[in-house]
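Format notes (please read before filing issues)

Several people have asked whether sequences and structure tokens are stored in separate files. They are not. Every record keeps both together, in the order shown below: the sequence lines, then the token lines. Line labels are part of the format and must not be stripped during preprocessing.
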Amino acid sequence: LVGVEDNISVDEKDAVFTRPDEAVQFVEETDVDSLAVAIGSAHGIYKGEPKLDFERLEKIDNKVDIPLVLHGASGIPEESIVKAVKLGINKINIDTEIRLAFRDAVRKVVTESDVYDPRKICGPARDAMKEVVKYKIGIFGSEGKA
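Then the structure lines:
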């Protein structure tokens, strides 16, 4: 997966997309409960607009019978997320968007007031993250589901 996570960086030229037949082999050999697929997403902040390989996703979903995971989904257009869910994605990771909401809320409190109490700084940050999560749950089609 392209991008940076936990100080590990993968360049675009080194990224490999999940091959449907290899996904089948991996699932059979490891008996995993879910499979994170590489279909064009990236960790971190996108430099351009991400382009998901929906044809690849559909082929993988047709070949394996376990939940599929989309890592690096922060910044992917909503219509692409909705389509990915329809084509088999069951879990979506949006850590960067949540972290950005936290950072932006902290920055706003610190720059627009003289607050120094961490509870008054972190409260709005927590609320901002909560709003992102609630909104994304709706986009993902997960509202009202356990």
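For reference, the curators noted about this record: The mean pLDDT is 90. The first strand starts at residue 2 and ends at 5.
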